[in-house]
Backbone:
C-alpha cells in the first residue's frame, strides 16, 4: 500500500495545483483580437486610424456599390437597369420601375451602409479625444469625422427623409439611447444637424494636406457639401456665398479642368476639378470600393484594338447594369463633348484604343470604365483604382448659377452656367428670363452630372420627379416616391418604433 | 430485521462449509460464443465470501468441498452454477447475456449495468455500425436509435447532422458531442467504423449531466476496440461498388424551355429569346455534371495479447467518389492500441487514431444545373464552353472543370493513460486525451474566359493551413464495492482541464501557372500577394462526480454533478453547475413477480436534471477593436493606404450558459421468453436559449446582431423501441425490430420583440420565422389559393402590383384589403413530428439477409430552388408543361414568368419519406481450410429506394436551426451498390 501513497499524493497535489490556477486558466487573452485593455490608446497612430474608419466605410458594398447604384442612379431617367433582361441584379428591375418595397435589398443596404458610416464617425469622435496627441491634430481629425458624418446624413435625409439623428455613440444597454436610435426626427432637424457638422468642420479643416494625406476632407470639401446642402434647402444666399468662395479661390486652388473626359479617369484623380472624391487603389491591401465598376462594366462583348485588324482583345467587362438610357443619349445638344465622355456605345473607340465590337447592351457608363492598358489595373475587377467623384467644380458652378438665378443675379448665373457649357464644347446658353434660365441650369446639371448618381435626387429636389419619371414610363407616385421606404428589417429591429414613409 | 437474520444464517453456512472436506478444483472459463478465454471472471462458492478470479488465461484454482456450488459470474455474461461433486476440473463456457439488464453500458467516465442506469441510453453494437457502407458512425446510426435524428447529404467527406431528442438551441450548433475513448470532438470523420466496439447515445439529462456544459445537444460515446488476451485474430473486410443519383428532377427540354422563356418574356414586353424551330442543342445538365462514383473500402485488423500486454492494430482505406464529376474523397485510418500490465495493480496504455484524408472539393453545381438553359451546349463544336448571356448562370461543367480545391487533413486523436488499483474496488485513472490536426488547402483558379459573366481574368492561388490541438487532462477515481451482498455502490469523481487551440494561415497570389506542380506562392506575381492568419483559444476546467447505489439488484439511486468553467464567458459568468438525479426499479426482482412467466425482465426508470451548453459562438464578451478589412488610399496612386479601426460590435456582457432542464421516464422490458425486448420512454425538457437579436443599423453594430438569452424552447416526446428475436431452428434465426420517436418542439416564450426570421432564399426573400407557439424555424409564407384565370378575378381581390392572369392567388388572410407580411401564415416546420427506423434480418444456414429502413413524417420542406427563380432560368418539366396560358386556360401551374415569386405555400411540400437504407445479402462459406475462421461474401444496396411525395432531389436537408429544410443547392443523398468480402483468421 505504501508504494501507492506517493502516487496518490502526486495526484492530489496535481489536483490542488490545477484548482489553484483555475482563475487564470479560464481567462486567457483572446487570440488575434485587440481589446481596449491592450495598448490601443497608447499608440497615437490609432487616433488617425479611428478617423480612417469614417473614410473606409465609403468603400463598402452597402455604401457605394450595387445598392447605392440602384437607389441613386437606376431610379432616374438617365439610367436603365441594363444587363440582360432576365438578370435582375436582385432587385434592380424594381429600382428601375420604381416599384420597390420596404423589403427591397437596395433600399435596405443603403440605410445600413450610411448608418454604419455615422457610427464609425461617432466612434471616432468619442475615441480621438482619448489620445495624447497635439490638440491641433485632434481638432482636425474630429473635423474630418464631422464632415463625413454630414455626408452620410445628407445621403440619409435625401433618401429617407426624417431619420434618427445620432450625435454620439449609442449605448445598446441604455434604453434612452436605443429610443433615440429608433426615433425619426423631422427633416429640418436632420438638415440642421448636417449644417452644424459642416460648419464645425469648415472652421477647422485645412485648405490642403501634405501629399501622403491627399484625399482627406478639406475646407473646400466641407464648403462644397454645405453649398449643396444649402441648395437642397433652397437657402440660396448661403449656397451662393459658399460657391463663390470656392470659385474665387478663397479656400483652395479649384477650377474646371479643360478636358471633361479626363475627370473620371485615373489621370483626372484629385485634380483641381475635385473637391472630394472617394480614394480607391487597386491591389494590396484592399483600399478600393468593393465592386463599383464591375456591376457597370460592359457585359459580354468582343473587343479589338485600334490597328490590330479586328483581332480579339480583352477589355474591362462586367455585369452590364446601370446603362445610360436612350433618352439621356438623345437629349444632349449637338456638339456636347460630354456625351462621348459619359456614354460608350457599341462601335466606339475608347480612350485606350479599345474598340467595342459587340456587347449585350447598346450603351454603358463610361465614367465607370477602367482601362486595362492605360490605368492601374491589377487583374481584380472587383476592386479597381476608380476614385468616385462626389463633389466637383462642374457642380459647384451649377449650384452657383442656380443660386444666383434664384437671387436674381442673372449675370452671375449666366457666367457660371456658360463656364460649364463652354468646357463641354458648347456655346453660351440662349436661355433668357428667370424661369427659362432655371430650366437651362437644371438641364445642364443633367448632362454635366450624368451617371454621377445625382439625377434622381435632383429631380425630387426640383419638384418635378413625378412628371419627368412618369413620362419615362416609371411608376413614380407623387407624395410617395419622393422618399424611399424605411427598410422593413429596420422597422422590425426597432420593435415597430420606426415609422414608415407615406404610401409604403 | 428479517434480512439481517438471513445474513447471519448465510455467514454461518459459509463458516460451516469451510470445515467440510476441501479439495482443489481448477478449470478454464471461456466465452461460449467465440471460445476465447475470459480473464477476471468471479468464481465464488455459493453462500460464502470465498472465491477467486480467473487469470489472464481464464484459468482459476479454488479450494472447495464436493457439495459446494461454484458460481461463475462476469459482467456481460449469464451467471452459471456448477456443483463440484467429484469433479476436480470444471471448465465453464459462459454465454453472453441475451438479456439487457446485465448488459454493460458505457456511461460518462465509467461503466454500469443496464439495471443501474437511471438515464436514457441507447447502446448500438459496433457490428451494426461497421455493416453500413458509410463514412461516419453518425451516418450509420441513422434509424438505429430512438430519439436520434440523422440528416445527411450525399457529399463525400461530410458528417451528417445529428439531433438528439429535438432541437434545443436556436442559434448554436445543434450537433451532439462525440466522446471517442474519452476525447471530446464534434468531428468523427477520422474514425473508422470497423474500429468501433460500441456506441452509446446519452439522451437525457441524467446520463448527460456528467458532461455538464458540453452536453446540451446530447452526447454520443464511442468506444473503440482493444485487444483481448488470447490468440491473434485477423480480420479483413472489403467492399467495392459505385454510387449514383437516387432521384433526378425532370427539367424542361430545350424546346419546352425555349417556349416557356419566350412566353415569360412576352408578358414583360420583351423580345423572344429563342426561335424554337432552330434550336441546336438539348443539354441535360444533370447528366453532364454527374456520374457514377466509385466507392471502395479495405480494412485489416489484428488483435490479441497476453496477460501482460494486449494489442489492437488496424488499417483502413476508404474511397468515396461523389456523383459530381471530379469530387473525390479518400481516407486512410490507422489505429494502434496497447495495454500494458506491469503488475496486477497497474495498467498503462495508449490508443492512437491516425487519419490522413484528401478531399477534392467541387462546387455544388446542382443548382446551376437546375437553372442552366438546356439550349446551351456544354461545349460548342469549336471547343468553346456553352453559355447563354440572358442568364446569370455559370456553365456548371466549366465550373467543375476550372475548380481545383483540394483539402487535406492529417489528424492524430487518442489518449495515454495510467490506471492504478491500490485496493480492491478502487481505481485511480489519469488520462491525457488529445486531438491534433493539420489542415492543408490548395485552391487554384486558372485564368479563363467564357463570357463576361463567367470568367477569371487572372489566375489565383490560395494556400491555407490550419492546425489545432485540443487536449483534455482527466483524472478520476472510481470505487465500486458491494457491502453485505446487497448494498452496491459505484462512485466516480474526477476533474479535468482542457485547452482547445486553433490557428490558421493563408497566402494568396495571382498570376500562377496552370500546372499543379507550380502551385506555390513564389510562382505568382508577388506584388499581388496577400496573407492572413487567425486563431482562437478556449480553455475549460471541471470537477465532476457520480454516485450510484443499488439495493438488492432491485432499486438503484443515482446522482451526478458537474461544476464547469469555460473561457467562453465573461469573468463573473464563467462557472456553471449541472446535475441530475434518478432511480430505477427492477420490477421483476420483486417476489410478487416470481410466479409469472410473461415478463422476463422489467425495469422502470425516472430522472431529472440540468445540463448546459457553452458552444455559443460569436458571443462578444470583450470590447474588441475591429481592424477594418478596407484600408483607405490616402496619397493617391503613389501613397500608402492607411489602416482603419473602429468599434463596431456591441457586446453581450451577461453571456453565459444555455441551460436545459428536463425529465425522462421509461419502461424497459424483455418478454415472451426473452424474444421481445422493448424500451418506451417519455421526455420533457426546457432549454433557455440565446437568440440573435437584430439591432437597428443606427446602433452601429456591423453585423447588426447581438445575442440575448431570450427564448425558451421545449422538446417533449415519446420513444418506442421494440426488437423481436427468435430461433426457428438451429440454423434458422430471424429478427424484426423498429423504433419510432414522436417529438414536439415548441417555442414557449420569446422575450421582447425579437425578429427571428431566417431561411433566406438568397433572392431577398425569407421563409422561416421563429415565434412563440410554433416549432423553431417554422415556414412563414403567403397562402396560395390556386391561380387567377381572368383579369376580373384579379381586380376583385387584393393582389401584388403586376399580377396577371395565370399568377398565383395569395390569400388576404387578415382581410385588410391589401397583401402584406401580415398575411403570411405558418405552414409547418422542417422538424418531423415523428421519425422511425425499421430493421429485419434472417440467418438461414449459410445465408444472411437484412434490411434497414429509415423514415420521417409530418415535416415540411421548402422547395427553394423552385421558388428562387431568377429570370430566364430553366424550369421543371411538369411546371412548364402544365402552365396556365391564354391558350391553356385549364393549366394547373402558374403562367410563364420571369419574376421572383413570393414565398408561398405553393413551394411548401411534404418532407415525409420512407427509405430503404440498406439491403444486404450474404453467404458464409463453411471453412475449415487455410486456417480461416470464416469467409463471407455479400452484396449491399445502400439507399436503393426512397418513397416520398417531395418533388425535389431529396427531402433530407440539413441546415442551421432556424433555416433547415430548404432546398437550394443540396448535394443529395445518393444510392450505392456494393459487393463485399469478409475474412477472419
Residues:
Amino acid at each position: 500500500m505504501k508504494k501507492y501513497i506517493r502516487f496518490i499524493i502526486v495526484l492530489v497535489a496535481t489536483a490542488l495545483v490545477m484548482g489553484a490556477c483555475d482563475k487564470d486558466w479560464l481567462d486567457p487573452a483572446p487570440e488575434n483580437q485587440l481589446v481596449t485593455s491592450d495598448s490601443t490608446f497608447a499608440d497615437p497612430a490609432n487616433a488617425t486610424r479611428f478617423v480612417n474608419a469614417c473614410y473606409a466605410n465609403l468603400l463598402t458594398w452597402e455604401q457605394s456599390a450595387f445598392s447605392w447604384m440602384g437607389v441613386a442612379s437606376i431610379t432616374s431617367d438617365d439610367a436603365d437597369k441594363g444587363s440582360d433582361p432576365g438578370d435582375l441584379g436582385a432587385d434592380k428591375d424594381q429600382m428601375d420601375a420604381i416599384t420597390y418595397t420596404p423589403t427591397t435589398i437596395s433600399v435596405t443596404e443603403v440605410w445600413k451602409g450610411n448608418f454604419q458610416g455615422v457610427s464609425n464617425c461617432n466612434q471616432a469622435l468619442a475615441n480621438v479625444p482619448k489620445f495624447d496627441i497635439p490638440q491641433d491634430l485632434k481638432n482636425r481629425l474630429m473635423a474630418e469625422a464631422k464632415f463625413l458624418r454630414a455626408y452620410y446624413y445628407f445621403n440619409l435625409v435625401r433618401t429617407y427623409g426624417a431619420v434618427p439623428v445620432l450625435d454620439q455613440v449609442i449605448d445598446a444597454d441604455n434604453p434612452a439611447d436605443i429610443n433615440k436610435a429608433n426615433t425619426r426626427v423631422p427633416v429640418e432637424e436632420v438638415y440642421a444637424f448636417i449644417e452644424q457638422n459642416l460648419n464645425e468642420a469648415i472652421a477647422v479643416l485645412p485648405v490642403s494636406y501634405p501629399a501622403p494625406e491627399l484625399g482627406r476632407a478639406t475646407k473646400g470639401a466641407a464648403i462644397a457639401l454645405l453649398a449643396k446642402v444649402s441648395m437642397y434647402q433652397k437657402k440660396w444666399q448661403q449656397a451662393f456665398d459658399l460657391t463663390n468662395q470656392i470659385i474665387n479661390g478663397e479656400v483652395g486652388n479649384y477650377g474646371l479642368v479643360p478636358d471633361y473626359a479626363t475627370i473620371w479617369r485615373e489621370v483626372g484623380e484629385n485634380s483641381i476639378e475635385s473637391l472630394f472624391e472617394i480614394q480607391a487603389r487597386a491591389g494590396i491591401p484592399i483600399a478600393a470600393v468593393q465592386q463599383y465598376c464591375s456591376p457597370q462594366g460592359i457585359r459580354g462583348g468582343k473587343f479589338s484594338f485600334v490597328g490590330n485588324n479586328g483581332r480579339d482583345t480583352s477589355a474591362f467587362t462586367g455585369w452590364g447594369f446601370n446603362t445610360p438610357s436612350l433618352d439621356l443619349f438623345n437629349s444632349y445638344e449637338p456638339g456636347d463633348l460630354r456625351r462621348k465622355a459619359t456614354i460608350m456605345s457599341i462601335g466606339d473607340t475608347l480612350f485606350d484604343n479599345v474598340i467595342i465590337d459587340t456587347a449585350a447592351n447598346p450603351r454603358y457608363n463610361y465614367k465607370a470604365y477602367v482601362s486595362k492598358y492605360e490605368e492601374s489595373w491589377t487583374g481584380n475587377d472587383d476592386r479597381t483604382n476608380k476614385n468616385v467623384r462626389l463633389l466637383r467644380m462642374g457642380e459647384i458652378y451649377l449650384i452657383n448659377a442656380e443660386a444666383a438665378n434664384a437671387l436674381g443675379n442673372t449675370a452671375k448665373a449666366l457666367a457660371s452656367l456658360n463656364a460649364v457649357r463652354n468646357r463641354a464644347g458648347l456655346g453660351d446658353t440662349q436661355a433668357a428670363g428667370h424661369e427659362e434660365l432655371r430650366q437651362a441650369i437644371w438641364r445642364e446639371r443633367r448632362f454635366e452630372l450624368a451617371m454621377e448618381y445625382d439625377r434622381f435626387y435632383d429631380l425630387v429636389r426640383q419638384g418635378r420627379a413625378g412628371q419627368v419619371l412618369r413620362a419615362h414610363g416609371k411608376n413614380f407616385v407623387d407624395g410617395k416616391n419622393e422618399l424611399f421606404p424605411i427598410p422593413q428589417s429596420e422597422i422590425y429591429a426597432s420593435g415597430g418604433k420606426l415609422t414608415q414613409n407615406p404610401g409604403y | 430485521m428479517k434480512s439481517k437474520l438471513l445474513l447471519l444464517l448465510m455467514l454461518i453456512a459459509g463458516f460451516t462449509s469451510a470445515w467440510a472436506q476441501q479439495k482443489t478444483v481448477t478449470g478454464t472459463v471461456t466465452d461460449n460464443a467465440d471460445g476465447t478465454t475470459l480473464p477476471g471472471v468471479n468464481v465464488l462458492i455459493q453462500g460464502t465470501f470465498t472465491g477467486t478470479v480467473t487469470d489472464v488465461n481464464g484459468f482459476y484454482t479454488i479450494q472447495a468441498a464436493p457439495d459446494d456450488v461454484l458460481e461463475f459470474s462476469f459482467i456481460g455474461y449469464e451467471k452459471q452454477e456448477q456443483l463440484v461433486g467429484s469433479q476436480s476440473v470444471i471448465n465453464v463456457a459462459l454465454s453472453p447475456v441475451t438479456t439487457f439488464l446485465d448488459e454493460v453500458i458505457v456511461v460518462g467516465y465509467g461503466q454500469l449495468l443496464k439495471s443501474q442506469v437511471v438515464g436514457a441510453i441507447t447502446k448500438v453494437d459496433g457490428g451494426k455500425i461497421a455493416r453500413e457502407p458509410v463514412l461516419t458512425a453518425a451516418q450509420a446510426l441513422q434509424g438505429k436509435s430512438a430519439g436520434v435524428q440523422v440528416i445527411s447529404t450525399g457529399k463525400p467527406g461530410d458528417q451528417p447532422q445529428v439531433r438528439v431528442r429535438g432541437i434545443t438551441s436556436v442559434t448554436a450548433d445543434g450537433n451532439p458531442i462525440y466522446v471517442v475513448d474519452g476525447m471530446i470532438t464534434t468531428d468523427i470523420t477520422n474514425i473508422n467504423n470497423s474500429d468501433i466496439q460500441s456506441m452509446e447515445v446519452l439522451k437525457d439529462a441524467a446520463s448527460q449531466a456528467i458532461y455538464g456544459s458540453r452536453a446540451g445537444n446530447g452526447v454520443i460515446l464511442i468506444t473503440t476496440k482493444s485487444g483481448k488476451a488470447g490468440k491473434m485474430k485477423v480480420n479483413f473486410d472489403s467492399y467495392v461498388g459505385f454510387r449514383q443519383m437516387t432521384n433526378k428532377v425532370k427539367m424542361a427540354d430545350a424546346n419546352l424551355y425555349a417556349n416557356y422563356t419566350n412566353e415569360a418574356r412576352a408578358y414583360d414586353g420583351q423580345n423572344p429569346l429563342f426561335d424554337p424551330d432552330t434550336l441546336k442543342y438539348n443539354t441535360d445538365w444533370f447528366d453532364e455534371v454527374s456520374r457514377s462514383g466509385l466507392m471502395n473500402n479495405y480494412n485489416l485488423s489484428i488483435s490479441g495479447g497476453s496477460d501482460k500486454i494486449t494489442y489492437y492494430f488496424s488499417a483502413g482505406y476508404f474511397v468515396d467518389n461523389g456523383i459530381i464529376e471530379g469530387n473525390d474523397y479518400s481516407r486512410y485510418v490507422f489505429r494502434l492500441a496497447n495495454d500494458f500490465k506491469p503488475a496486477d495493480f497497474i495498467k498503462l496504455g495508449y490508443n492512437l487514431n491516425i487519419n490522413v484524408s484528401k478531399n477534392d472539393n467541387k462546387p455544388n453545381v446542382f443548382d446551376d444545373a437546375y437553372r442552366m438553359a438546356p439550349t446551351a451546349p456544354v461545349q460548342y463544336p469549336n471547343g468553346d464552353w456553352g453559355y447563354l448571356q440572358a442568364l446569370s448562370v455559370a456553365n456548371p461543367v466549366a465550373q467543375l472543370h476550372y475548380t481545383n480545391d483540394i483539402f487535406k487533413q492529417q489528424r492524430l486523436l487518442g489518449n495515454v493513460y495510467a490506471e492504478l488499483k491500490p485496493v480492491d474496488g478502487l481505481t485511480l485513472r489519469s488520462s491525457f486525451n488529445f486531438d491534433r490536426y493539420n489542415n492543408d488547402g490548395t485552391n487554384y483558379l486558372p485564368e479563363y474566359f467564357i463570357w463576361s459573366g463567367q470568367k477569371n481574368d487572372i489566375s489565383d492561388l490560395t494556400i491555407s493551413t490550419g492546425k489545432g490541438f485540443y487536449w483534455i487532462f482527466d483524472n478520476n477515481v472510481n470505487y465500486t464495492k458491494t457491502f453485505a451482498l446487497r448494498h452496491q455502490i459505484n462512485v466516480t469523481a474526477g476533474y479535468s482541464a482542457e485547452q482547445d487551440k486553433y490557428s490558421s494561415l493563408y497566402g494568396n497570389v495571382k498570376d500562377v501557372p496552370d500546372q499543379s506542380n507550380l502551385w506555390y506562392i513564389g510562382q505568382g506575381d508577388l506584388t499581388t500577394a496577400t496573407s492572413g492568419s487567425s486563431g482562437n483559444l478556449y480553455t475549460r476546467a471541471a470537477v465532476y462526480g457520480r454516485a450510484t447505489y443499488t439495493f438488492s439488484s432491485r432499486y438503484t439511486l443515482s446522482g451526478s454533478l458537474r461544476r464547469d468553467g469555460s473561457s467562453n464567458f465573461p469573468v463573473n459568468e464563467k462557472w456553471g453547475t449541472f446535475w441530475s438525479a434518478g432511480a430505477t426499479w427492477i420490477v421483476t426482482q420483486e417476489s410478487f413477480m416470481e410466479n409469472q412467466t410473461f415478463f422476463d425482465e422489467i425495469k422502470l426508470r425516472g430522472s431529472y436534471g440540468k445540463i448546459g451548453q457553452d458552444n455559443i459562438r460569436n458571443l462578444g464578451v470583450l470590447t474588441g477593436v475591429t481592424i477594418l478589412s478596407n484600408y483607405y488610399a490616402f496619397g493617391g496612386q503613389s501613397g500608402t493606404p492607411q489602416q482603419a479601426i473602429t468599434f463596431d460590435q456591441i457586446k453581450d456582457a451577461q453571456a453565459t450558459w444555455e441551460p436545459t432542464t428536463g425529465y425522462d421516464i421509461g419502461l424497459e422490458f424483455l418478454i415472451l421468453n426473452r424474444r421481445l425486448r422493448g424500451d418506451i420512454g417519455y421526455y420533457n425538457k426546457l432549454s433557455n436559449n440565446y437568440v440573435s437579436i437584430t439591432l437597428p443599423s443606427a446602433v452601429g453594430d456591423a453585423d447588426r446582431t447581438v445575442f440575448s438569452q431570450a427564448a425558451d424552447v421545449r422538446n417533449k416526446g415519446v420513444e418506442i423501441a421494440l426488437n423481436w428475436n427468435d430461433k426457428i431452428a438451429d440454423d434458422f434465426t430471424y429478427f424484426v425490430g423498429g423504433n419510432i420517436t414522436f417529438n414536439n418542439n415548441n417555442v414557449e416564450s420569446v422575450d421582447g420583440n425579437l425578429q427571428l426570421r431566417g431561411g433566406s432564399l438568397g433572392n431577398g426573400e425569407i421563409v422561416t420565422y421563429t415565434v412563440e407557439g410554433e416549432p423553431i424555424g417554422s415556414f412563414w409564407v403567403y397562402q396560395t389559393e390556386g391561380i387567377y384565370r381572368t383579369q376580373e378575378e384579379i381586380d376583385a381581390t387584393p393582389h401584388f402590383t403586376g399580377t396577371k392572369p395565370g399568377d398565383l392567388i395569395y390569400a388576404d388572410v387578415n382581410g385588410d384589403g391589401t397583401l402584406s407580411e401580415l398575411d403570411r401564415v405558418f405552414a409547418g416546420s422542417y422538424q418531423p413530428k415523428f421519425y422511425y427506423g425499421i430493421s429485419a434480418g434472417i440467418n438461414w444456414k449459410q445465408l444472411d439477409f437484412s434490411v434497414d429502413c429509415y423514415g420521417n413524417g409530418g415535416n415540411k420542406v421548402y422547395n427553394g430552388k423552385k421558388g428562387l427563380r431568377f429570370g430566364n432560368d430553366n424550369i421543371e418539366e411538369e411546371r412548364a408543361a402544365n402552365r396556365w396560358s391564354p391558350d391553356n386556360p385549364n393549366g394547373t401551374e402558374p403562367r410563364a414568368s420571369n419574376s421572383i415569386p413570393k414565398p408561398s405555400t405553393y413551394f411548401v411540400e411534404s418532407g415525409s419519406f420512407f427509405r430503404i437504407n440498406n439491403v444486404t445479402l450474404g453467404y458464409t462459406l463453411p471453412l475449415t481450410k487455410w486456417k480461416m475462421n470464416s469467409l463471407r461474401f455479400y452484396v449491399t444496396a445502400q439507399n436503393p429506394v426512397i418513397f416520398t411525395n417531395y418533388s425535389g432531389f431529396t427531402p433530407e436537408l440539413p441546415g442551421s436551426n432556424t433555416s433547415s429544410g430548404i432546398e437550394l443547392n443540396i448535394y443529395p443523398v445518393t444510392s450505392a451498390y456494393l459487393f463485399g468480402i469478409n475474412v477472419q483468421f
In short: The CA atoms of residues 43 and 131 of chain A lie 8 Å apart.
